[in-house]
């Protein structure tokens, strides 16, 4: 596998660490992460990843941060956007994967994960 693809996938895996039920797989022939059986993110190429994202949030991100997020005609109207991996910070990437995971997890999973985060943030 190409070095750039591996580097992008490693960043995605690192950013998704700690999210429940993450499965390493492939999608369209490239490395991908699923939340259970639902696609969360995948490598598009050595500089770009595809992130599953609700359409309203996608539109907001495209307008607010066009340096980080974009779409091609292929993704118009679909709940997915493209991320520039050479520009996005690790913190922003982690935040986006968490948001994507929350939109794809079951309500029970999401509630349990959020409750666990609250307990962690309350610890001294």
From TrEMBL:
InterPro entries: YjbR/MT2646/Rv2570-like
Pfam family, one: YjbR
Top-level taxon in the UniProt lineage: Bacteria
Name used for this protein in its record: MmcQ/YjbR family DNA-binding protein
Organism (species): Mesorhizobium hungaricum
């Amino acid at each position: 596998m190409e070095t750039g693809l591996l580097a992008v996938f490693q960043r995605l895996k690192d950013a998704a660490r700690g999210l429940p039920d993450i499965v390493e797989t492939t999608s369209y022939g490239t490395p991908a992460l699923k939340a259970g059986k639902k696609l969360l993110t995948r490598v598009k190429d050595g500089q770009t990843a595809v992130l599953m994202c609700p359409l309203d949030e996608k539109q907001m991100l495209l307008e607010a941060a066009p340096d980080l997020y974009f779409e091609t005609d292929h993704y118009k109207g679909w709940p997915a956007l493209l991320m520039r991996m050479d520009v996005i910070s690790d913190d922003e990437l982690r935040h986006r994967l968490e948001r994507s995971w929350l939109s794809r997890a079951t309500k029970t999973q999401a509630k349990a994960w959020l409750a666990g985060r609250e307990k962690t943030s309350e610890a001294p």
